[in-house]
Structure formats: structure tokens, C-alpha cells
Design goal:
With 318 residues, the chain is an alpha/beta fold. It has a single domain, classed as 3-Layer(aba) Sandwich (Rossmann fold), CATH 3.40.50.1820. It contains twelve helices and ten strands. The strands form two sheets. An eight-stranded mixed beta sheet has the order 1-2-4-3-5-6-9-10, sandwiched between helices. Strands 7-8 form a two-stranded antiparallel sheet. Strand 3, helix 2 and strand 4 form a beta-alpha-beta unit. The radius of gyration is 18 Å and the shape is globular.
């Protein structure tokens, strides 16, 4: 276990430059996470985890925004020992092949192996976007490993969830062209605006350090090439393949308490859809944030941190 130790990995083209930009992002929030590398066997991969803080363990699994997107939320959870996973193929983690087994099963088994490698027993899990599938997948397949689950933003949890236009385009032949285009701050800001975060950009709630880091993701790592390979394995004819989403019967069998937080500016799904999903979960609840986008903590990190803390610390029946 080291703090930003210089370690070469095939998952990046310029690990040193990536780490430097990442360090600046976390430093903006006064955080210096510790770096772990863990080995898993099924599927075989070498994965990176950043650890910050102390207290009860909390695992965070990101969406296409990337692991650095969690920095502002981790700052608001000072009573937690946060473990931020670089999903396979992201940051400094090696990629895996998602085409051979059901995605939610692979995700759950990867997370369980990561917990084993870190010496963690039962944890709470926060997911964002497709990270919600990882969080609920772990609760469904390895229920003893999960205390509570927090789901943030629209996600491919159920078949009727819409495929985001960016993901559909990334999986298409035009995705190759997208990857060849140089990442720029203007492009990052445009993506954030399309995800409902325009007002937070204008107000300065999303710092330049995040924009710089997101540019470095495309410039210095293979993250987006690997993300394209993943979404190609998850889509068929512009819709989600079986094995990614949950049927209502599967959701109804998950006894883990779950909080779904959704911003009404999020273009993925709707209040009605996620209210229905929260209602199917036996111990689910929905928290709506007015004016928030796809990554709702980008728009109100203190409020979201307080709501997550309330939910995680609430006693059963409280």
C-alpha cells in the first residue's frame, strides 16, 4: 500500500502524468488518498483502489464520469473510510472481457473479490450511473457483504431505462471517431451541460481541476477505449442486452436497504421510473433533488453527503 507510488501498468499510456492531474483534483478538496493494487482471479485483473478517511468502510463504484468524479462527495463523508474503485479498464486498472457472462454477475463477483483482497467484510456501497448495477448486483449475489446501498443518478437497472445518447454513440462505429478526437476542456464542459450540470458549471461548483482530470482520462489512459469495449458488450441493436438489467422479481428479492437519489435535470430516466424502481425494492426509498443532473453530488455535494450519512446511519425502523 502506497500513496501515489510510481508503478507502471499497461492500463495507461502515461501513468505519471495521469497521477499528477489526479493528485491535483483530490488536493482541491483537501484529500490525499492512499493507493492500493489488488489482484483478482475471475476474471483475471489487476485493479486499483484509492482509500481516503477512516471509520466504517464505504465502497464507491463510478459510471462513465470516472473515479475522480467521487472526490467532491468523499470530502462530504469524513466519518467514512472510503474505497474508490477504478472500474476494470479505468484509470490504472486493467480491462476485462464483459462478453462471456452476465454483466451484473461479473460486476458482483469482481466487487466481492476486491473486498476479499482488501480484507473487508460487510460494507456499504455507493454506485453512480452504471455503478448502480455493481452496487445492486453485489447486494443480490453476495447479500452478506452489503449493509446498505446508495444509488445515484439514472442507470441501466431495468429494461425500460433509456440508453443515453452518448453511450449509444460510443458503442456505434462513430465511437472510433470520438476516441480519435482530442479531449478538450470545452468538450468536457459540453458533456457536463448535456448531463444537467450547466448551472453548476456556471456557478463554479465543478472546479477546473475536475475538467483537467477528465481531459487527462482521455489523453493519458486507455479508459475510454476500454469503456467503449464494455458498452459494445452491453448493447444489442441500441438496447440493453439481457444480463445487465434487473427484472422486477430480481429487485423484489433484494432485502438490502437501498436509497435512490435522482436529480430532476438528469436526462437518464425519469422521476416516475426511479420511483417505481425504489418501490419494487423491499426496503427502497427515493430522494429527489431539484435542479440536479446525472451526477447529483456535482450540484449539491454537502446536501447529498448529509442525506447519504443520514441513510447509512439510520437504524432499522428508524
Amino acid at each position: 500500500m502506497t500513496s501515489y507510488a510510481i508503478e507502471r501498468t499497461s492500463a495507461t499510456t502515461n501513468a505519471d502524468a495521469y497521477r499528477e492531474t489526479e493528485r491535483a483534483l483530490w488536493g482541491h478538496y483537501g484529500l490525499e488518498p492512499r493507493e492500493h493494487f489488488v489482484e483478482i482471479d475471475a476474471p483475471a485483473a489487476r485493479l486499483r483502489v484509492l482509500e481516503s478517511g477512516s471509520g466504517k468502510p464505504l465502497v464507491l463504484v463510478h459510471g462513465t464520469v470516472g473515479p475522480g468524479g467521487w472526490a467532491s462527495l468523499v470530502q462530504e463523508l469524513p466519518g467514512r473510510r472510503c474505497f474508490v474503485l477504478d472500474r476494470p479498464g479505468w484509470g490504472l486498472s486493467s480491462p476485462v472481457d464483459y462478453s462471456r457472462r452476465e454483466y451484473k454477475v461479473v460486476a458482483a463477483d469482481i466487487l466481492a473479490q476486491v473486498l476479499d483482497a482488501l480484507g473487508l467484510g460487510q460494507v456499504d456501497v455507493v454506485g453512480g450511473s452504471i455503478g448502480n448495477v455493481w452496487a445492486l448486483g453485489l447486494a443480490a449475489r453476495h447479500p452478506a457483504r452489503v449493509g446498505k446501498v446508495v444509488l445515484l443518478g439514472g442507470s441501466p437497472l431495468v429494461p425500460e431505462a433509456p440508453v443515453p445518447g452518448f453511450i449509444r454513440l460510443l458503442a456505434s462505429p462513430l465511437g472510433v471517431v470520438m476516441l480519435r478526437l482530442a479531449h478538450s476542456p470545452a468538450r468536457v464542459r459540453s458533456i457536463l451541460q448535456h448531463n444537467g450540470h450547466g448551472s453548476s458549471l456556471d456557478a463554479g461548483r465543478i472546479p477546473q481541476e475536475f475538467v483537467d482530470w477528465r481531459v487527462a482520462v482521455g489523453r493519458d489512459t486507455g479508459s475510454m477505449r476500454n469503456e467503449r469495449a464494455m458498452v459494445q458488450a452491453l448493447l444489442r441493436g441500441g438496447t440493453f442486452r439481457p444480463g445487465l438489467t434487473f427484472a422486477d422479481a430480481e429487485l423484489a428479492a433484494i432485502e438490502t436497504p437501498a436509497l435512490y437519489i435522482f436529480g430532476d435535470e438528469d436526462p437518464v430516466g425519469s422521476v416516475d421510473l426511479w420511483s417505481r424502481v425504489a418501490g419494487v425494492l423491499p426496503h427502497g426509498e427515493l430522494h429527489l433533488i431539484a435542479g440536479a443532473g446525472h451526477m447529483p453530488w456535482f450540484d449539491d455535494a454537502p446536501g447529498l453527503g448529509a442525506e447519504i450519512d443520514r441513510f447509512l446511519e439510520q437504524r432499522p425502523g428508524g
